[in-house]
Design a protein that fits this description.
Length: 571
């Protein structure tokens, strides 16, 4: 039986709802709930709710989507099976999961991990976790428990779990390399991976880390990766990484199926091509134009060029031949792309204008020096002038298009320059707009070979994504030992896998969002917990809380249901 009772405390009356039941012939109180004083009750009856003392906002959308995907592929379980540890605190798999989610949503240093973590529903998911468990030292301690030789097996374990449920087409795989500059000191001798090399972001003055990646053309899933020395050439790494990739994926080919590896000309070497020839895989690659003059010298207006007829290749025409390349007969496709030609001719005119402007200025200064109008400064020599000219003509094709003659007047070198019209006409009629593709897929149609090579943009977009200032997952890299740098590469690659699975899952539900827009939508899904002040008479009772969600639009509601975010709401 339920009824209302009251208590008088310090001369003031407080009311309680109480329920009593009969047990063993006696009336016993089953529960009691505090209602407040008469004013509280009247406010509730008249619709005047109690005002919360403050609210706590937790990030839900992005975190819950990653947790949902990690649960689907059993990420933590797979990692912990290969990397067991004493059952104390978080497991290695849980630390890698937290790092993966952070890299996917708001990459911070390990020192800033707790500040980010405590404002997400992860605080509820890992109930009982303490700040001391997410210090940078605790992260580094657990990263130390991952031997370098276990990184690839751990990755393949996670990947295979994802592939078993995602059913990804592996018939076409792209490969490429990139690099990430670091701020590791020149005098830090505790690591060998960061080295100076040709940095793709123009930071060659800094030590860099190289990163090689295979990914599927369908859904852009990362398949195999390696982190290696920053001064290793692309072609060298390609022939070194191929055996490992082949060992990991040769058993994934079902009877009658094939896998084609797509790569660019920077990875070519006799050893790499021979490695593929000896494997069950096929390839589509490209060749350097200057190594095959008999093909590049074909006029762009040659009648042998034919349109493929494919709607995606309207601006392109091609010539197909059989030719011996790397000691075997290959199918070779010479393509001419009008759009590429237009872009290259604009670049050519722009470079010519800049070079001629600089050469004009140099010629004028030398003439003024010879005539005595300039007397200060170090007197130029022919060697210094030639060096200056070489620097001016460093852009592609400039040395062959601009002729520079050297003369002397009053012991001062002078220059005269002119555009070689014959070379210009030859260049614009042959090299510009061309690419040479080659493959061992002799039975493929010409348009299929071209489209397969164009699929290389998939991996370039992934690299662009990792370096993006908003959604990038690689930086900051605050590690300075080879083993930790490689573990960093592991959880960054798992982040790429999670993102690919996320995009795949949403596309299957007709939610067509770019990665950036999806992050914005997920970021807008938050949980709000209102904390109410304690009322007199509540004594040691816990503070009252209520929870709600921020308003969601139609897309956010679909994402909420798709990733089962209700399972991760903090209570």
């Amino acid at each position: 039986m339920a009824y209302i009772t009251r208590k008088k405390i310090n001369g003031k009356t407080y009311y309680y709802a109480e329920h009593r039941v009969w047990k063993g012939g006696k009336s016993c109180r089953e529960w009691q709930k505090y209602l407040g004083d008469i004013d509280n009750i009247m406010d509730a009856v008249e619709g005047n709710p109690l005002t919360p003392d403050h609210a706590v906002l937790f990030e839900l959308g992005g975190v819950a989507s990653y947790l949902s995907l990690a649960k689907e592929i059993q990420m933590v379980e797979k990692i912990d099976r290969l990397l067991p540890k004493r059952k104390q605190g978080l497991s290695i798999g849980e630390y890698l999961l937290i790092a993966t989610i952070n890299r996917g949503l708001e990459a911070v240093s390990k020192r800033g991990m707790w500040s980010w973590f405590q404002n997400t529903v992860l605080l509820n998911h890992f109930s009982g976790i303490k700040k001391e468990q997410l210090t940078s030292q605790r992260f580094w301690d657990h990263m130390n428990l991952i031997p370098e030789e276990k990184i690839t097996p751990v990755w393949l374990e996670v990947l295979n779990s994802a592939l078993s449920s995602a059913h990804i087409d592996l018939s076409s795989v792209a490969f490429d390399e990139t690099n990430f500059y670091t701020f590791i000191s020149t005098f830090n001798q505790r690591c060998n991976i960061p080295q100076r090399g040709k940095n793709k972001q123009g930071r060659s003055n800094l030590r860099q880390v190289n990163y090689a990646l295979f990914c599927s053309k369908e859904h852009h899933l990362p398949l195999y990766f390696d982190v290696y020395q920053g001064n290793v050439h692309d072609a060298t790494k390609f022939k070194e990484i191929l055996p490992g990739f082949q060992a990991a994926f040769k058993n994934k080919l079902t009877p009658g199926s094939t896998m084609t590896i797509v790569f660019d000309k920077g990875n070519n070497s006799p050893e790499a091509i021979d490695e593929i020839d000896q494997s069950p895989f096929h390839f589509v690659g490209s060749l350097k134009l200057n190594e095959y003059p008999e093909l590049t010298s074909i006029s762009n207006a040659d009648q042998r060029f034919e349109s493929t007829g494919h709607p995606q290749l309207e601006s392109m025409k091609a010539i197909r031949v059989e030719k011996e390349v790397y000691s075997e007969q290959r199918t070779v496709i010479v393509t001419f792309n009008q759009h590429l030609y237009n872009d290259q001719i604009k670049t050519l005119y722009n470079d010519l204008e800049k070079c001629q402007e600089k050469l004009s200025g140099l010629s004028r200064r030398l003439t003024d020096r010879a005539e005595g109008l300039i007397t200060r400064g170090k007197k130029p020599t022919k060697t210094s002038v030639e060096k200056n000219v070489k620097d001016i003509l460093k852009r592609q094709y400039m040395k062959q298009l601009i002729r520079v003659d050297y003369q002397e007047k009053k012991s001062t070198p002078l220059i005269e320059y002119s555009l070689d019209g014959e070379e210009f006409a030859k260049l614009t009629d042959t090299l510009l707009g061309k690419k040479i593709l080659f493959t061992d897929n002799h039975n493929w149609k010409t348009e299929d070979i071209i489209l397969a090579y164009h699929g290389q943009h998939v991996i370039e977009n992934i690299f662009k994504e990792t370096k993006d200032c908003k959604t990038g997952c690689w930086w900051p890299l605050n590690h300075w030992t080879d083993q930790k740098i490689k573990v960093h590469g592991l959880y960054c690659t798992i982040t790429l896998l999670m993102r690919a699975l996320m995009i795949k899952k949403t596309r299957e539900e007709n939610i067509n969002l770019s990665l950036g827009r999806m992050h914005e939508s997920l970021k807008g899904i938050k949980q709000v917990i209102n904390i109410y002040p304690k009322q007199k008479g509540q004594g040691n009772m816990k503070e009252r809380k209520t929870q709600t969600l921020t308003r969601m639009d139609e897309v956010q509601e679909k994402l909420f249901d798709l990733f089962k975010m209700n399972d991760y709401i903090a209570i």
